[in-house]
Amino acid sequence: MQKRITLFCAFLLASVFAYGQNITVKGTVRDQKGETLPGVSVRVKDSDAGVATDANGAFSINTASNSTLIFSYIGFATKEQPVAGQTVLNVVLDESNKALSEVIVVGYGTQRKGDITGAVSVIGKKDLDQRPNTQIGNLIEGKTAGVQVVSPSGSPSATLSIKIRGTNSINAGSNPLYVIDGVPAQDTRSLNPADIETISVLKDASSAAIYGAQGANGVVLITTKRGTTAKPKVELSAYYGFASVRKKLDVLNADQYHQLATDLGYSTDWTKYTANNDWQDEIFRSGSSQNYQLAISGKNEGTSYYISGGYAKQLGVIESSEMARANFKVNLDQKVNNWLTVGTNVAYTRYNDVSITDDTNVNGGGVLLGALTTPPNIGIFNADGTYTANPFQQWENPLASLYGSTRPYKNQRLLGNAYGEIKFTPDLKFRSSLGIDYINAVSDYFLDPYLTSYGRQNNGIARNETNLTNYWISDNTLTYTKKLGKHNFNILGGFVAQKYRYENTYIQTTGFSGNTIPTTNAGSVIGSAYNNKSEKFNNSIIGRVNYDYAGKYLFTANFRADASSVFGPNTRWGYFPSFSAGWRLSEESFLKDVTVINDLKLRAGYGIVGNDQISTTNYYSYLGGVGSGANYIIGGNIQPGNYPSSIENRNLKWEETKQTNIGIDLTILNNRLTFSADAYIKDTKDLLQTYPVPRSTGFDFALKNIGTLRNKGLEFLVSSKNIVQKDFQWSTDFNISFNRNNVTALYGQQYFLNTIAGRSEASLVTEGKPLGVFYGYVYEGVDPQTGNALYLAKSGEKSSNPTADDRTIIGNPNPDFIYGLTNTFSYKDFSFTVFLQGSQGNDIFNATRIETEGMTGPQNQSTAVLRRWTTPGQNTDIPKASVNNTDNSRISTRFVENGSYLRVKTATLSYNLPKTIAAKLRLASIRFYATGENLFTFTKYSGFDPEVNAFTSGSSANTNGGFGIDYGTYPQTRNLIFGLNASF
Amino acid sequence: MTTKYIFRYALAASLAVSAASCKKSLDLQPISDATVNNSYNTASQAEAALAGAYNTFVSSDYYIWDNTYTSDVRSDNHYAGGDNPDFFQYDNLTLTATNSKVYGDWSNLYNGILKANTVIQRVPLITDPSLAADRKAQIVGEAKFLRAYHYFQLVKNWGGVPLVTVPVTTTDPADINTPRASVADVYNQIIADLTDAAGVLPDTYGDASVNKARATKGAANALLAKVYAQKPDRDYNKVLTYADAVISSPAGYALVSNYSDLFDDNHYNNSESILEAQFNGTTIGNWSPSLLLPPSITSTTWRKFITPSKNLANAFDSEGDVVRKNQTMLFEAAPWVDEYWSATVNGVVPFPYKQRNLVNGNSTSRQYMLRLGDIILLKAEALNALGRTGEAATEVNKIRTRAHLGNTPAATQSAMALAIEKERRLELAQEGQRWDDLVRYGRAETVMNALNETNLITGQKVNYNMTVQKELLPIPQTELNRNPALTQNPGY
């Protein structure tokens, strides 16, 4: 725990010169659980003399041998202890209000929850234990207000993206800054959730401003576990789970397909095609997940340690998709002497996965759409062992995409830091930390030269891509803490420097003599080979002042100045201030006697934060780049050629978000009911946009600061201990968030995003609308005379031949609200937790149906097309088939569906073996559990699953501008997990 | 304060200073990219910028194969194939402003213009003494030729287009939202650039592999002949002048004796070639043959993207033209349904055959950017238009003789005009010329609406509904979205 480096360390008063025959009293202050308490005020009764406990809860004070010491600490009952001549006094404090005394990790330090003036959410041990999973995003989903987890798909290799209080940006990254034990990081996929102690989410500008130009999307602070008990603690956890798809979609069988193809005018020798496969049965399987973790931790003399190792493996519900991860972690802290502490956190991860092609149609090798649109008639293999294809088009069956190639991805990562902390005086502390994040990722690909037609054409294709990321950060901070009467000050100042270096190599070869060697060396022709390097450097000055008067009036001011190498020299420095204040009304005399109120606090804050997340390819774009590789052959020799690659923009700078937050925290009824509400307005300006420029410039995009965006919202958290009895407890946690997003100015620009094959783009970013609204035609049904689809024209008439101008906004993927509800019941050693999670009011654009109901070619279709128009005068909702013509399946309201859902995200039943039995087994504790994930889903959505976001993995531009599209996307799965946690 | 404290302060201060002394670190320069400031200073950099400009011929979809779509598929020569509905819009004359190929081609051509503009602007400023003055002038001349070549494609396909002759250096809408220029202004710019180019470019540089790879005086003259013929206020005297300049060029352009030599992949950079894009089939490869050639060559069994039309096959047959038909199309059984040639799988379907080399999915085959056969027929067209029908027949017969055909029977000026049109069709099929010819002769509507093509799957005759407005492509909708100063072509 970072308790030991807490900033609340000193309450030392000036007068340490004492009279007479004093003795030195030493000791340690702990809570009831035996955890040491840092920052506890230790005062001599009827005197001004006093000290505070250090990071290890220890204190040392000179006092008269007959005096009395007063120990006080917010959230704990104040305790008076007579010295009575003793030189060692170990004290245990009783908690008065656990929630308020909880120490929360904030930027560059910790703070007691009761003192927080910004909007900070904490996900603690209780939430983390409840949901065994492999990704941190899963742990956060639905657990706190204001945080939306956008999962692109149910693939084991999917990277979840997290949006805090809506999306602030159109083109720049929208992911929050993750800070793992003080080291900022982008990729959290390789992080082992089992090592996490707590997660703090800094939601508003006043709490995130200390991260300046990186803080606009909010900050997620992840703190890993540390040793806490003198006795070494060994913890083992393991689980095994089964995964399946929620449902299958109904497609035509072999006879029905034969009929459809015939109606469309396709004829072939049908006697050759006698199979009847439902391809969904071929690609789906029962998935599995397993996870093992062993950790040992402890704390003695000045040393605390935590060592863990873990292994996780997941087999996805689609054939061949998998993920495996092995972790190793060491956290060490050593108090060298009374003024120096050093420590380190190091984690090594090996992450492998195999992903599948989704989010594209059968032409592009999309597995899901392949399964839905491949004719059932053709069987899996041809007589010669190659994969079969559509009789009328060489679209191979989806197993060719799954097993025609091997696609291993391997990622090795070393993330960690080392720090030293020097205490100059009890008030003044210096901390220096050097962190690194080193990632080596290798993607290999080998397309068999025989099995698939593309493989045969190229005689096999092999690719090898290596991405090397090297990052370091140096933090140097000075902290000064002072108490003057009832005035408490805490001042922080420092420097931060960060450097990021990215290297990439790529080679592709073709022309293989066989499939025995899958690496590029065996290819006879080098198709392309390249190598790229880029760098980024950030330099920052940070400062913060916390001040409170008697714990009643709380003020925080932050300041950060940031310079980044990726921006123009004129605009390189950005300045990010923030201010916030809190008023603990419950400490006022007029409320102190109202016993029903345990705590009441009003909070307000304002701040400016920035966003500098631009892609590595744009790192130098303020300069006006010239690219290489545009070569030409003259005289039989290749002449190296270059080309202008970007428009110079010397004024390029960060996006800037101004956020105002007000909030209220209320605890009543003997700390049984806690209520929190926050309201915010976030205005982002100077949006960093890869701004589409007219192609007549010769360029496609220019990186530019243009446009404004607003997010505003409300968040509510309620936590209730409904029943607290000796044998039975019932508690409820509920959170709900409302966010409204609006692109307030784009200066006439529009972004059309997310192309659906043959039908243009489905998503639009335009002024006056939320990000990523769906754009297309208004469907008016089927013309009974012609069987053509009718659309609403601008003139108000129905037309089967509308123009591009007739398109309008046809849906909104942004939810009205998202919510989570957790109920926990404990009876003796049993506990049962049900976690419901939902999203309301969002639309999904079901582009999968365009492919399965469009009838534009020889694809198999869904059973909906059995209703298609066939004869004049027929009234139906499905237009006639139209080969090679997309007019009857344009992007329209026909494919916009209600995406609201409520699902039983997890239900966990667990049993703690009684301590007496555990002891006989020489265990401190052992817990068995069974968890069901996505057990029930209530939705009107017709696709595989409503939690779907095609096009959101990969380029960040799409993440922000278009989500809620289903285009043959890897569905979310239903999981059943059995596990145990044991400690000894 | 004790020495211990002093030591601690010193340690802290040194750490803080080391962290703060990072000002220099902020001025990072690209590692794997150059910048405009360090890329146009030396003689070899001038050549690299020029090579980059030529690269458009071998890297852009437009010159790789889309010009065949805009000309041969859109006209009566070929059908669309493959599986992309956007491509069928060319065939059926149902093009819309959102067509991805239309947008891609517009973008390709303007990117080529940017590269040429960059050479034209930057190279004259280079002070490197190893860049000789005459070479410097030639480089600018070559770039001007390229710029004219691209603008010619733009003005033919879209009419008056934004005229951008200087690379942009800002993103200010006032600087980048260029409105459309008039058709006349675009042609004036093309003619000015080509006249400048013809003035400074040499007839030859040395070896044929250089002479056909680079713009020469002959190339500039040949393009001038085509431009003067195609512009609305055409000038056949000028066409004749420039065609003759090519024919009598010291570069020694001459028809190859066997028509098949033009396409057999053993006679690249031949005497008939005036300019051709250069491929080596590996690092600089032409990928379009892998999308067009039959299964026996590509070993892929999916439907290919362009199919010669029945009307074209009939045109060869009616002329008894076996030589050129066999070089233009290859018949083979196709494992798919073709709506014009075979309603059943494994029927015999023709495949485009003028680019036929393919190794590991890549090709060295190339399209002629300019060739003498075209210029000779253009000369015939000019002579006939100027009333010198007899002389025109002489030129036409040069082409026919090589194709093993007898002399043209056309005797009147109007019959000769039609004979030349047909001769051009048979000689230049698949080479991106047909649509321009139909438009130039004012026959696009007549010819397209007279077509009798039946879709065997639906059993319906295809109605092309050709109009004068369809002679031009739509301005891409995406470009209209990006540039509010633009207006759409009528009819879209």
End-to-end distance of chain B, in Å? 85 Å
Shape of chain A: globular
* Main sheet: strands, sense, barrel of chain B: 2 strands, antiparallel
Q: Order of strands across the biggest sheet of chain B?
A: 2-4
Distance between the termini of chain A: 21 Å
Shape of chain B: globular
CATH topology of one domain in chain A: Ferric Hydroxamate Uptake Protein, Chain A, domain 1
Mean pLDDT of chain A: 87
Strand elements of chain A, count:
56
Percentage of residues in DSSP E strands of chain A: over 45%
> What is the number of helices of chain B?
22
Please, what is the CATH homologous superfamily of one domain in chain A? TonB-dependent receptor, plug domain
* Oligomeric state of this protein: heterodimer
Strand content of chain B: 5-15%
Q: Output mean pLDDT of chain B.
A: 92
Defining traits:
heterodimer, A: 984 residues, mainly beta, Immunoglobulin-like, Ferric Hydroxamate Uptake Protein, Chain A, domain 1, 22-stranded antiparallel β-barrel, five-stranded mixed sheet, 13 helices, 8% helix, 48% strand, globular, disordered N terminus, B: 492 residues, mainly alpha, Serine Threonine Protein Phosphatase 5, Tetratricopeptide repeat, 2 domains, two-stranded antiparallel sheet, 22 helices, 9 strands
